[in-house]
Amino acid sequence: MLERVDRIQMAVAEAAPAARAFQDILGAELAREDDSEYLNAHRTILALGASEVELCAPRGAGVVRAHLDRWGPGLLTAGFSVASVCRKYFGIDAEYIGYVNHDEAARRSVRARQPLVDAHPRSDAARYLARVARKLAGDPAAARPAHRGAAR
After folding, report:
1. Are residues 63 and 132 both part of a single domain?
2. What range does the domain containing 138 cover?
3. 23 domain residue, yes or no
4. CA of residue 66 relative to chain centroid, distance
5. Which of 92, 110, 137 is the last residue before a domain boundary?
6. Does 42 map to a domain?
7. What is d(CA 38, CA 129) in angstroms, rounded to the nearest whole number?
8. What does the alpha-carbon distance between residue 125 and residue 37 come to, in Å, rounded to a whole number?
9. What are the pLDDT digits (tens) for 95-135?
10. d(CA 92, CA 129)
């Protein structure tokens, strides 16, 4: 059973007006901003309770621009917490430790037979993997909810 929405990504032409709407209507807070190489977009990431809303504005051709051209602004992706599925089908209690965004850098590092964090240390995936690793190692700063600080 779906337990919570972890995050959604929205394709938007401009992030500022959309961010203001989420802030004014739902009380969202600005968590951080960054650029996604895979999406070729600037991301404005808002904390909304325990969830995040990523407002993705295109920097040129790519996934977000294609979405906007075909369907206009709207939902791009969503991530969900499904611990009960792990209990029911795998007999394990899964604890949420984080996520790793899709990133073409991962595919490139596999093809080059190089570790992702060495080949592309500044990629989205490498930064998110580092945060998950710190959390597994017991780093108290990494244990904070994802929206309380940028991945390092």
Report:
1. no
2. 97-147
3. yes
4. 19
5. 92
6. yes
7. 16
8. 10
9. 777 777 677 888 888 889 888 889 998 888 888 888 888 88
10. 22
Residue 134's identity, in one-letter code, is R
C-alpha to C-alpha distance for 43 and 128, rounded to whole angstroms: 15
Residues 21 and 85 in one domain: yes
3-state secondary structure of 139: coil
Question: Which of 55, 73, 92 is the endpoint of a domain?
Answer: 92
What single DSSP character describes residue 13? S
Residues 86 and 128 grouped into a single domain? no
Counting other chains too, the contacts that 137-145 makes at CB distance below 8 Å and 24 or more residues apart are 145/47, 145/50
Rounded distance, CA 35 to CA 52, Å?
16
Assign 126 to helix, strand or coil. Answer: helix
Rg of the chain on CA atoms, in Å:
16
Tell whether pTM > 0.85: no
Is 152 a domain residue? no
